Predict the structure.
Amino acid sequence: MKGLEISLVALGGALGAMLRYKLSPSMLLFGTFPIHILIVNILGSLILGLFMTASHHWNLDSRYTLLVATGFTGSLTTMSAFAMETVNLFSAYHYGLASINIVVTLGLSFTAIIVGKELMRIIINF
């Protein structure tokens, strides 16, 4: 990897991590449900769907993908925190909340990618 490419990933990663940090103190639903992790995963998925559609349509340089997709959304979203919070819910015998967390996070993240892609298609064709 070249210096510019490393810098783009690092810049995107720093920006995504800062946004994730700012969203972290959000309230927890039902006192135990990790809503902040759900929010960053959905937001990151939406941004990724928007960006990848725009990138494909406008044939953007792959370095933008390093900045936005790899760096920014890669550090904004968090599979490890999602997995840890889900395991913690199971360990605390909150089986229903753990199951809801899995279904809602995956379902809404996939939906956000689709919405982002479709929204960008609408914007492009407007």
